[in-house]
Write a structure and sequence with these properties.
single chain, alpha/beta, Gyrase A, domain 2, Isoleucyl-tRNA Synthetase, Domain 1, five-stranded parallel sheet, four-stranded antiparallel sheet, 51% helix, globular, RNA-binding
Length: 579
RNA sequence: GCCCUUGUAGUUAAAUGGAUAUAACAGACCCCUCCUAAGGGUCAGUUACAGGUUCGAUUCCUGUCGAGGGCGCCA
């Protein structure tokens, strides 16, 4: 049965290509077949005649007739006709559609996958949140989008590497370490004003308690003079904070690394655990610190300096990004001798290409858009092709609750965590809700709606279709192998043929989702597919007395179940057997 | 001021440059003796404005008006 299946679209593209070559030997148009929205326009429509009309200086309908005349005959085609301004509509024989059900059952989990990527190594870096506190709902969107995109790319034949960049070397981590230590000192009875721009969240206190439980007062220091000589917290809070960090490092000496490391491991572990529960897994967690330790940043900066892309001014080193279209030059090494985040990022991206990825995708929050020209500029300066880096910007998820926008600040400890959201709404609804919007579209995440109406979330509509099929097959109780032998030409009902057409679209949907970085189109497709199934469910009885018809219909819905499952898997949503 | 995203039914959103612009929710009705009504069916309702490119524009370009966000020797 499988061997007899011919994929209609590529078959037709081939036929049209031959016909066009005959009608207009010199033209270079690409054959484009689309699936008309209206059934009366056939199963496929070709616009080649309209594309050729100009160069041939002839009426498009006339050209269409010539193309049809030149079209090689095919067992799949029922009829062709010229319609509208010059479309060629193709109607397939029922047999050409029916065989699909058997093909899907034979292909199983692989149905819908393609060879678009040809095994090309592509890296997708996403989330990459600072490990300075719990992930919040904004990170959730990047996680859901990145994971789904990576799945879709893998399904389209790319060799995908999923990576999380760990910012474990920067000032933010120092602030977290300081915050933790100050809370720890409070446990030891020391009253030190806790800076307003340090991390306020309760998880900081939890870490301090953890350290105290493990080591008692081992890390206590007399900090009564810790504020001495520091800039006033009210007038210059950032310098005040930096002064505190410097004092903490001096007072703790070697022990500072322990506090820092403890906080890092705790927060990173928390994020990893959170993401794993969310179905988001990474092949690699790449440490920023290793870039510093391995001297990679020194090497890259020296290299760029040697080629005249870096100059010194006001005691700092500047990258001449204006030479690559950026609006101003950027500091890579501050006058205090510390590399900026940007310097590490240049090294990181060069490192990505040195690891052999031919394409690199960064998924960033939209607030980083101004960052793109300087990173691409740095890649170009370093002799890499900036076109191989693609940045997908994910717009913010703005949270609404009680009709009010919730402001979120990690440092102020004022936000809804991803974990809380998942527990309220459920992982499946979360994953689906997040990717239901185009990534570059602002997402208003109405918390009340997501919580209170979670049963009306479209994800349940799709899952219900899957569960319904599972229950019917269970009620049947027969041998699935019998379905492979089903006499599929029994499928003649209009709703059955409509469903077959929908199933046939799945591979194209997946391929386009990969090419456009648009996993949301899979979500929309699944809604349509579920609607077709529910429509058929209402219109036709599956478990009928006629054995041949029953097997054919069961084969059709079993194929539908397979496609629902394949699509939901791409989105990281479960496909329940019953609800 | 500069940059990014965006403007589609009452609301939230779809639509590789294609034919009569899709859905969901909200609204008005109808359908369980039947494999799960978390379902199906009927009705009403949309491309901000002005130009341009094109056989053909929601889509591409320019402008106007409106919305959201970003613009540190922070990360």
């Amino acid at each position: 049965m499988t061997s007899s299946y011919i994929e209609p679209k590529s078959h037709l593209v081939d036929l049209f290509r031959q016909a066009v070559r005959h009608v207009a030997p010199d033209s270079e148009i690409t054959i484009d077949l689309e699936r008309p929205k209206q059934a009366s326009h056939g199963d496929f429509a070709c616009n080649a005649a309209m594309q050729l009309a100009r160069s041939l200086k002839r009426n498009p309908r006339e050209v269409a007739l010539q193309i049809i005349a030149a079209l090689p005959s095919s067992d799949l085609v029922e009829k062709t006709e010229v319609a509208g301004p010059g479309f060629i509509n193709v109607f397939l024989k029922a047999r050409a559609k029916q065989a699909l059900a058997g093909h899907i059952l034979a292909r199983g989990n692989a149905f819908g996958s393609t060879d678009l990527g040809r095994g090309e190594r592509i890296q997708v870096e996403f989330v990459s949140a600072n490990p300075t506190g719990p992930l919040h709902v904004g990170h959730g969107r990047g996680a859901a989008y990145g994971a789904s995109l990576a799945n879709v790319l893998a399904f389209a034949g790319y060799n995908v590497h999923r990576e999380f960049y760990v910012n474990d070397a920067g000032r933010q981590m120092d602030i977290l370490a300081l915050s933790t230590w100050l809370r720890y000192l409070e446990l030891n009875g020391q009253k030190i004003p806790f800076p307003g721009n340090a991390y306020q969240g309760d998880y900081v206190k939890v870490m301090a308690e953890g350290i105290y439980a493990l080591h008692g007062d081992k890390y206590a220091r007399d900090a009564s003079h810790i504020l001495a000589g520091l800039p006033d917290a009210g007038t210059d809070p950032e310098s005040h904070l930096d002064g505190l960090i410097a004092n903490a490092k001096r007072l703790l000496d070697q022990d500072y690394a322990y506090i820092h490391g403890y906080a890092l491991e705790e927060q990173l572990g928390d994020s990893r655990n959170d993401l794993t529960e969310f179905g988001v897994v990474f092949d690699q967690w790449f440490s920023e610190r290793t870039l510093h330790d391995a001297g990679l940043i020194d090497r890259i900066v020296a290299d760029l300096q040697q080629h005249g892309h870096i100059y010194e001014q006001d005691g700092a080193l500047w990258f001449r990004s204006t030479a690559f279209g950026d609006e101003k030059d950027r500091v890579v090494k501050r006058d205090n001798g510390i590399y900026t985040y940007f310097a590490a990022d240049i090294a990181y991206h060069i490192n990505k290409f040195e690891r052999g990825f031919s394409r690199v995708v960064d998924i960033w929050g939209a607030d980083h858009h101004g960052y793109i020209p300087r990173v691409k500029g740095a890649l170009k300066a370093a002799g890499q092709d900036p076109e191989r880096l693609e940045v997908a910007l994910v717009q913010f998820a703005v949270l609404w609750e009680g009709g009010q926008k919730k402001s979120m600040s990690t440092r102020a400890g004022q936000y809804v965590t991803l974990r809380d959201l998942r527990r309220e709404v459920g992982n499946d609804a979360c994953r689906f809700f997040y990717v239901l919007r185009k990534s570059d579209q602002h997402l208003d995440f109405d918390l009340d709606l997501a919580k209170s109406q979670s049963n009306e979330n479209p994800v349940y509509y799709i899952q219900y279709a899957h569960a319904r099929i599972a229950r019917v097959l269970e009620a049947w109780g027969g041998d699935p192998a019998d379905l492979a032998e089903a006499d599929l030409d029994r499928l003649e009902h209009a709703q059955e043929l409509a469903l077959l057409n929908r199933l046939a679209e799945f591979p194209e949907i997946c391929a386009n989702a990969a090419a456009d970085f648009a996993p949301h189109s899979v979500a929309y497709y699944l809604k349509d597919l579920a609607a077709d199934l529910h429509g058929l469910y209402a219109a036709c009885q599956f478990l009928v007395d006629n054995e041949a018809l029953k097997l054919a219909r069961l084969a059709l819905i079993a194929a539908t179940r397979q496609v629902l499952r394949n699509g939901l898997t791409l989105l990281g949503v479960s496909a329940p057997e019953q609800m």
